[in-house]
Each structure stands twice: as C-alpha cells, then as structure tokens.
C-alpha cells in the first residue's frame, strides 16, 4: 500500500520528511518552497488516492500562486506534529 492511499499515512510520511529536513538544518523558507513545488507536482501529475487529496488538488488548481503558497504552508503546519520523529 502506498502512503498516498491513506490520509493519515500520508500526513505521517510528510511529517517524517519535515523532521528529517529540520534535522539537517534546512530552514523554514526552503521547506516552504519545497512544499510548494511538491504541491504543484502532485496536483498536476499524481491521481488523488483519497477524498482529502482530491480536495487539496481541486483547491490547488483553482488557487493563484500566492494561494498555492498558502496551501503549501498550511500543509507544513498540518504535518508538523505527525510522523515517527516528533
């Protein structure tokens, strides 16, 4: 099963990656920009595997660039307390 198949697994996966990045000294601005790039890739290249991902994709696709950055930043905040490396 892919981490994309389950919303909670996806949040844990993102949380783990966020904690790894922080542990390697990557600053918040770089994390935010990476989240924005990943959001664009997922919205344009990956089929949604659950309802939550479908909503995020739809929101991303109607958002302008500033709003997409806001969505990416909210996703970072959402997963900050997820993952196994809290």
From TrEMBL:
<dbReference type="InterPro" id="IPR024702">
    <property type="entry name" value="Uncharacterised_YmfJ"/>
</dbReference>
<protein>
    <submittedName>
        <fullName>DUF3243 family protein</fullName>
    </submittedName>
</protein>
<dbReference type="InterPro" id="IPR038292">
    <property type="entry name" value="YmfJ/YflH_sf"/>
</dbReference>
<dbReference type="Pfam" id="PF11588">
    <property type="entry name" value="DUF3243"/>
</dbReference>
<dbReference type="InterPro" id="IPR021637">
    <property type="entry name" value="DUF3243"/>
</dbReference>
């Amino acid at each position: 099963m892919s981490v994309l198949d389950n919303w909670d697994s996806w949040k844990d996966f993102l949380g783990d990656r966020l904690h790894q990045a922080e542990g390697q000294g990557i600053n918040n601005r770089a994390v935010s920009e990476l989240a924005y790039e990943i959001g664009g890739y997922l919205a344009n290249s990956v089929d949604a595997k659950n309802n939550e991902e479908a909503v995020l994709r739809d929101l991303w696709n109607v958002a302008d660039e500033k709003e997409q950055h806001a969505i990416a930043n909210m996703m970072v905040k959402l997963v900050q307390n997820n993952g196994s490396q809290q």
